[in-house]
Amino acid sequence: MSEVEHKEPPVANELKDYIEDGKNKMIVKCKFCGSKILDKNSATFITLQEQLPLMLQDSKQEGEVQSETITDFYHVENMFTFENIGFTHTVANYKYLSCADCDAGPVGYYNMDTKHSYVAISRIVQGDN
Questions:
Q1: How far apart are the first and last CA of the chain?
Q2: C-alpha distances out from residue 103 to 87, 107, 119, Å
Q3: Which of 20, 39, 69, 95 has the greatest count of CB atoms below 10 A from its CB?
Q4: What is the pLDDT of residue 14?
């Protein structure tokens, strides 16, 4: 049986300080209240293209959910890895993730098929404590 070579996705320059050996090098926190979402080295950096609803919706666009394309995520295989996260009701086979303390979100999504979670790096902050 031959070994499959594991290739790390390319890391954008602005993210190099936060990723080490393909994992989050620092604590992942809510950008609004600072609550801890993930411990250091608990999630894997991946790139994939996914649409997420905007965290702040324009009230002038009533009835229409505005979204954006996000490509940089932390992949979390087990939902119990999270320190502090909330899950919404299921929407089209996803549950959106939010901060359990201040309800800010979505900070990512949970895929009902794979049972894996994805935290959008652009929607969190990272630090040593």
A1: 43
A2: 10, 10, 15
A3: 95
A4: 72
